[in-house]
């Protein structure tokens, strides 16, 4: 929708990328927001936090009432990208300047906020500006003090402290860089630290990869391992209880990648940007899918 020729071209590519189509679960649209939802995170109370790229605002969707409410605004930036929970009801949110009208990205504008939702009112604190940043999107916790954060333009992985904002480079690798002919400078995007490995997508590189992380030092151990290549505009992903992942891709929707590397197309969601599982008794097997058209969808996974 925002760049339909581009989406069309990618959709054509998708048919030759060799996805195995086993079943397609129909997504239900549960929320019609406006603007561009880039990333989502589910709170322990079941509400889904929605980070907006078109405005610097964090919203919350309540699955029981299907209503969306604004949680906080973030001054000094055009929008938000990644969001993750670092300790119970404390979130890390990335902000910076990406224009959703012309896709220009401002280097040096990317920074990190701490959003504390443990009290009656949301408390936001600007943690750190990353002056050398190109385009920061993905973020994932290492433990309750340290999180990983990645620069999609430069192909750099950092670790940062939620207490001090101090950060350092963990890895700079060609597998994390966008290809030179990329539509925008968007390489490493979705990040998840899971069972001793950092898993990541490279959106315009079309890859899904992992690298082993030392569980004490948070340093990499060994080289990046490529799990899948020839993917199309893959963005965020979420681990299911069985160790498979569900991926969101702008042009193709939601797919599932099993631990053995087999990939299955699950559903078509227009401009899918992010996925996350519910955390309540009723929606544990529900996959929430956001879109850059401002929608939130659910897919029943069992
Ligand atoms: C959202 O809009 C679509 C298209 O107009 C409609 O089919 C759907 O029922 C709406 N969903 C909600 C939750 O409002
Ligand atoms: C760390 O944070 C996670 C996610 O919120 C939580 O499940 C876990 O209990 C936390 N651990 C400690 C020691 O706070
Ligand atoms: C792109 O749009 C932003 C505002 O959204 C504006 O500040 C910037 O100048 C525009 N850049 C180009 C190259 O048109
Ligand atoms: C990012 O955009 C905001 C809002 O327009 C502006 O105040 C800020 O100066 C911009 N940052 C950079 C580094 O250009
Ligand atoms: C990979 O795992 C899935 C899920 O268990 C299974 O359906 C599929 O047949 C496996 N593929 C291969 C090549 O082993």
From TrEMBL:
Residues 1-18 form the signal peptide. The keyword Signal applies. Coiled coil: none annotated. Keywords: Signal. This is SMP-30/Gluconolactonase/LRE-like region domain-containing protein.
